[in-house]
């Protein structure tokens, strides 16, 4: 492999990035890209924001904005997040650019002319009020499987089932709320079924594909592939380049893949280099596991139909949960990249999300575990070894690498460096990024033990030659760590090498000894421990974010029968410290209410007070006592909401 074409799944431009995106896709891809560059290979690392599809269109329509305005807003946020995490793209583009439109339309036309795309009438939901067909995300209703309300036309959040709009019970248009009707609409389909055997052979014979990708893809192919609808009735998107297809756009999964190509072509136009040379050598896609189907089945089939070389490998990162629960952006149970970077360095995020578990396994982000790893592994092991090595060199050797006569224990450390470098290379080549990072921390552990065993603070006086050999060897180990860390923690790597005065060190320099007499710079602490109070604050902020305001409609509010009532009698309920039994006059009737206001009011002070009563709540029993209404009071202090004016029984609107 001389050249490698690396891509990341296109982030969808309807929200910023969170830690799950970084863990599954962008950090692993960047580690691989940086490693290949430092190894001397030519790398083309591209990505783009995916800016079409119904979620952006729906969001724009609800906010009375142009879809491009929404996409542009999030493009800037996403780009800022990825740059802040040092994701080293050679080009980061957008699928809303004219270049991408041309490439996608030409791709569609070629497949159409080769008869891999055909026309077919299908039944679709049509909104008479909006006067248009409704794509899947424009429809909501009840899930036909679990009965949950608010299921979308493509997915039910409650049970996780994939849905079609026509399956929804009591569907309604998300924009105007009216009930749609069923009409026929002509669409374009891709003959995915024709590639059943070719895809099966490609997946089975591709020795590069990881087990999680191969097994998932095989399951779908072996069940039998159906042709894919390749168009939508929408305005926002890439128009189908056929005269008879007015009002139809190419389905986002029919053109978003080509964002890899259009971004590469854009790079070629900027640099004058040929992107095809990279694609023709080695292509590696980094994605999240939720889009394995699309990248391991649909995309290869499109490329087969067009006549292109297929990807060499697809690396799918598994899910990241948060504090033991599934991440949810809708419920705000999520850590946004920008929020995290307000307090912590990007390198420790890259470290934690890599070291936590192999990429092919689900893992969890825990604030306490994050603190433990930073404090124990980065501060106490890695940072401690480097700082004591540099400080000792500064103090006792005038910041210069000492002359040394190495003995067996010193040579063993030098040999360990060479072995670790080989193991790290092997791990990264196999996309086992965690294993490579564990090796680097292992070197620091050996360094600390070696430093302790050699006791240079003692031998500097009793056996200067032994102390010099120890510090010489520790600096070689520090250099190796600085070089080998570059793909994982580029900023810390640069700081280590700057202290060593070796900013231009290459990958192979990891095993090349620093010569005696080489001068290093003054040592500075590389890692700070994270205090308990900081973690407690982050946990508090996370839980606070989920306490979002829930809204009801005007129609829902109108169902509440709120009235002015007068308390006639009040008495304590035996066995309860807080509950009082109230008799309340509503003019047309008297009701009994059990209210939890006993910690604030005594029974004797309540008769005669005018209060606000919810009068049409379903009767229930509290402490065995019937309650036919609800008295309105503040939630924490239990202060009654009272009125000075207002007739008894008067409705509140």
Overall tally of domains: 4
| Helix count, DSSP H or I runs of 4 or more residues | 20
Number of distinct beta strands: 23
Stretches with pLDDT under 50, minimum 5 residues: none
| Average pLDDT score | 93
Largest sheet: 5 strands, parallel
What percentage of the residues does DSSP assign to strands (E)?
15-25%
CATH T-level fold name of the largest domain: Rossmann fold
What are the defining features of this structure?
Methionyl-trna Synthetase, domain 2, zinc, ATP-binding, Isoleucyl-tRNA Synthetase, Domain 1, 5-stranded antiparallel β-sheet, alpha+beta, flat, single chain, Rossmann fold, 23 strands, ligase activity
Describe the structure.
It contains 20 helices and 23 strands. By secondary structure, it is an alpha+beta fold. The protein has four domains: 3-105 and 249-337, 3-Layer(aba) Sandwich (Rossmann fold); 113-247, Methionyl-trna Synthetase, domain 2; 382-549, Isoleucyl-tRNA Synthetase, Domain 1 (Orthogonal Bundle), CATH 1.10.730; 554-631, OB fold (Dihydrolipoamide Acetyltransferase, E2P) (Beta Barrel). Strand 1 (3-8), helix 1 (19-38) and strand 2 form a beta-alpha-beta unit. Helix 5 packs antiparallel against helix 6 (211-223) and helix 15 (433-454) runs antiparallel to helix 17 (464-484).
